[in-house]
Design goal:
8 strands; binds flavin mononucleotide; alpha/beta
Length: about 180
Amino acid sequence: MTVLVAYATRHGATAGIAERIAETLTAEGAPAEARPVDEVADVGPYDAVVLGAAAYMYHWLKPATAFAKRHRSELAARPVWLFSSGPTGTDVVDAKGNDVLVASRPKEFEQLPATLGSRGEQVFFGAYDKDAPPIGLAEKMAARMPAAARGAIPSGDFRDWDAIDAWAREIAAELAAG
Ligand SMILES: Cc1cc2nc3c(=O)[nH]c(=O)nc-3n(C[C@H](O)[C@H](O)[C@H](O)COP(=O)(O)O)c2cc1C
């Protein structure tokens, strides 16, 4: 049994979550390896897949969605779990009174679970460093805006390692149960 933890990241926070999930799965008796989606040519050798990406502007990063489409039939034939990284900050409820993690569910999670028949999904708090060099056109343009206009995204590492470990242990238990 080998589990693939495939991920798409822009600044590395999601890579850290994927690596932690793989470590915890392995420690729980489900050997796993974390790999960027673009480095996985074939899902065939894996018995189960955990697929995750960072959310930007309400959407999963495109390479993860493309991976899900490209390998749709192989994924549908295996146990699959999905996760998303983001939001940032310490608020657990937003201004409208909604659970921040529920409100941060990427748009792709409306269709993807049904398409892949995935067994579960999770949104985790992420990390954002306001001083990191911008990546991509949108971030480069945003970096030129006044600080007040950019301040809406809390800067810091808000990844909840306990929640990440707990979810990985749930997956390991489901895999052990068959
Ligand atoms: C410009 C920008 C837009 C973002 N949009 C969202 C969003 O729509 N939903 C969300 O939950 N998080 C959002 N985030 C937070 C990121 O998803 C979070 O920082 C994530 O952990 C980054 O992962 P990465 O380092 O793997 O790219 C945004 C961050 C930035 C900088």
